[in-house]
Amino acid sequence: MAPYHCAIMQDTFPDSLARIVGASHVLTGDDAAPYCRDWRKRYQGQALCVVKPGSTQEVAEVVKACAAAGVAIVPQGGNTGLVGGSVPNDDGRNIVLNLQRMHAVRAIDVANQTITAEAGCILQNVQQAASDAGWLFPLSMASEGSCTLGGNLGANAGGTQVLRYGNSRELCLGLEVVTPQGEVWSSLQGLRKDNTGYDLRDLFVGSEGTLGIITAATMKLYPQPKVQLTAWAAVPSVQAAVDLLGLARQHLHAGLTGFEMMGQFALSLVDKHYPQLRVPLYRDTPYCVLLENADFEGEQHARERFEALLEAAMEQGCVTDAIVAENLTQAHTLWHVRESISLAQAEEGLNIKHDISVPISAIPQFVQETDAALAEHVPSVRIVNFGHLGDGNLHYNVQAPEGVDPARFLAEQEPGINTIVFDAVHRFGGSISAEHGIGQLKRDTLPKYKSPVALGLMRAIKQALDPQGIMNPGRVL
């Protein structure tokens, strides 16, 4: 697309936005460039400017100005997304609306067990505010030190505790949203029952900024467990990991808050690039599992349950070896290993990422068949298979064979590999995006795997709410 040639717009529109948010909060040129590149360094766009409002009212005024001028808006939080959904395209016509200045925790309602925070609040800060008040906010993921609550909701992020608490949508009780017309809709009361029509909250959660801009949210809080125990188990197969999940549900019940599966090659990358982490048990087993047990009675009760689980698992042959963290430091180290897989894979070179979900019962056969298909397509291909087995979400990533240039591999092999993986996901009744979203990375792929009826409904909703098409254009649809 040709560059934007309207000199009057380029000269005056950022100035008009500066009158709303303050001149120091409108960035152009080199100052805007860091906000126009995604975390994976896969997409580099150009923005008319980057605008950083400090309140919901300022967001509303910026949106009204953009709607009047016909300027598109790319909402952005921590810019940690993996599908290119929070950076502008390269035509220079969009503004980036970055919400990081809106980072306040507005309220904690102890009786209602809720926390209300603004969209730019870093996830880790939401967790800490809840903890300081004596509560647990369970949304957790590797990027929690930089991702924001609004971004989490925009992508319906999941993380490591979905098994027990659900993903962002399940944790959200209400939103504050600026519509594409610059109006403000709020449902921040924290109601658990409100049967007065369509559920607008769920419409905006997961919409990736294409229907409106989330500016604040009211989220559920939970009692803090008395103790959390973490175990690391070696398992002989994916089927054994699924069997272990079944046993863990029987023995730990609602106390099972995390269940992560990690392939041997994925863990070998952590060992290679971060040897100080000392990855346990992985060398002699094809897969390892990381389990977390949150107990509300006490450490002795928690350890007895864990020991009974692991004893039963070893008797059934679905665990060959295991360790239980002796203290919080050891537990954090084990989780750090898990959370370092993506970073280690990035150190190894460019790769093809898949964030897929498949019914848990079908995962063993999916992995077996898809591993074989990829090996036939690209001999010596390296598969980085890890993820949230407890909720059926795998990060089934593909690394170039040893000695093959990663950039060339990505350019030449990504379309064919994506087809193999996504066709298999579709055949097993799964989804090509479990928690990362569609963004621009999977936008053109989505119609092949999404029901035409569903796509028609989505387009109708988009047209009804955003008839000008100014909200994150070219994303999702």
From TrEMBL:
**Occurrences of domain FAD-binding PCMH-type (ranges):** 43-224
Q: Which family does it belong to?
A: Belongs to the FAD-binding oxidoreductase/transferase type 4 family.
What the entry lists under Pfam families is as follows: FAD-oxidase_C (PF02913), FAD_binding_4 (PF01565)
Which co-factor is required? FAD
Q: What is this protein called?
A: FAD/FMN-containing dehydrogenase
Q: What's an example of a GO molecular-function annotation for this chain? A: FAD binding
**What's the source species' lineage?**
Bacteria, Pseudomonadati, Pseudomonadota, Betaproteobacteria, Burkholderiales
Q: Which UniProt keywords apply?
A: FAD, Flavoprotein
Q: Which GO terms describe its biological process?
A: respiratory electron transport chain
SUPFAM superfamilies in alphabetical order? FAD-binding/transporter-associated domain-like, FAD-linked oxidases, C-terminal domain
